Amino acid sequence: MALYGGIEAGGTTFVCGVGTGPDDLRAVTEFATTTPEETLGRAIAFLKEESIGEPLAAVGVACFGPVDLNPRSPTFGSITSTPKQGWANTDVRGRLAQALGVPVGFDTDVNGAALGEHRWGAAQDVATFIYLTVGTGIGGGGLVGGVPMHGLVHPEMGHLRVPHDRVRDPFKGICPFHGDCLEGLAAGPALEARWGQRAEALPVDHPAWVLEAEYLALGVTNLILALSPERVILGGGVMQQEQLYPLIRQRVQELLAGYLEAPAVLDEIERYIVPPELGGRAGVLGAIALAEMTE
Amino acid sequence: MALYGGIEAGGTTFVCGVGTGPDDLRAVTEFATTTPEETLGRAIAFLKEESIGEPLAAVGVACFGPVDLNPRSPTFGSITSTPKQGWANTDVRGRLAQALGVPVGFDTDVNGAALGEHRWGAAQDVATFIYLTVGTGIGGGGLVGGVPMHGLVHPEMGHLRVPHDRVRDPFKGICPFHGDCLEGLAAGPALEARWGQRAEALPVDHPAWVLEAEYLALGVTNLILALSPERVILGGGVMQQEQLYPLIRQRVQELLAGYLEAPAVLDEIERYIVPPELGGRAGVLGAIALAEMTE
Fold this sequence. Notes:
Two copies of one chain form a homodimer.
Chain A: E1 4-9, E2 13-21, E3 24-32, H1 36-50, E4 58-63, H2 92-100, E5 104-108, H3 109-120, E6 129-134, E7 138-144, E8 147-148, H4 182-186, H5 188-195, H6 207-227, E9 231-235, H7 244-256, H8 263-266, E10 273-274, H9 282-294
Parallel strand pairs in A: 1-4, 4-5, 6-9, 9-10
Antiparallel strand pairs in A: 1-2, 2-3, 6-7, 7-8
């Protein structure tokens, strides 16, 4: 069985691992994202060290973005216009490929997470599904017919425009680009700004969660109508609030109003809108799934 | 060059053709959609008659819906729950395949139209794009990586929820399922209900068109964020109002607010949001493209 390296390249933390899957993750390390030189240097050193004696067949990088995923582009494999200091126009894939001398698979963080769930987690039995992560921001990706969603750039599902009833919720939203897009209304920092306390400090029965479920349900409903996914995985820090799942499922059914006559939506929504299954190592496992696909 | 049959199976009219492409459409006929027996019977008789001496390699059907596109389903190739009298649970694909004895490709009307544009029209150079048709209803489909969008059922882009400013537009929307979804606010009958006259009778400078462009731009923006298409084709009867294209392009740019740093959106939006190119025979040509893909 071939050995792979995986890098979950986050804007705050890098997680690197070597292994073949969830039951064989031989070594994992994580460190803060500092300069590209230092951070990529540490990742390269770790992967070299951990593959002495058994070379890596490939490496996968699930990367914070926006990233260039177009193989015909001169900047393919780069982070493009991030506000993250020092990282704009960084050729992440190229530097790793050059230093490690193996094929390097490269995709968005959320497409990586989706691939991991497809390989070992909550989406093993479906080929077309969405993975939405709700945390500091809202990101979305997924697979269509078993292939990670790319296109012109890559999906930016967090910035969907959703109905915003300003009588019910006068909060203006905090997205610096769009104000009250989905991320502006429903990411963790929006909860904190609206309610004056950190999301995780809000009680389970606080009205914040019904409103949060409303916006996430509107976003999920639009993604179901746009893409017809066979499953919707909702992950990220905000989704640690497990009371959100039943609230979102019910509102999605109400919003679709019986229009989609699919048993998955009408009768089995507990298995249609689900949490991820890979837990704390999802990011690095997704990167390993990406490596596996690249080899 | 193989000869194909194409059927544009609409809820009002069937258009049938035999040929190999836009420059070789040898025979075309159209007739009203009555009962399934009579209508499919006429289509079968036409295709048999027109292929005497040169047998068809395959037939494609671009069908009104909702339809079952899941090849593993017992009702694959059927129209499912349509309100169209007599047509619910009609096995369109099966009846044609049995009567004609050739492979029959089957997809939604809008996926068929998208395939035709990919083969011969406005999307020849891209693999991931959206086709939105705005007429009596609003339908959407497209290709992802060159493959028509299916999934759980198929996209239902017309029913996206978009922001609706009831101060600017107190009209409640006319979708029987959702009220003010995109179709409920912006399909042809919504224009007629809101303004008290048929859409085509409204002057080019009527405020109706700025409002119409607002809703269509919100829908297109959400589809761009959800799917990252390389192009967006807008067709259908309402889009005959050519003043809509520049209004929609400008609003999409404003709504994205520079967030997607893609030249296609920022600098070349006239080539990004475009009308279809196949004109009046687009439906039947899409069905022929579907046949070609099926053979």
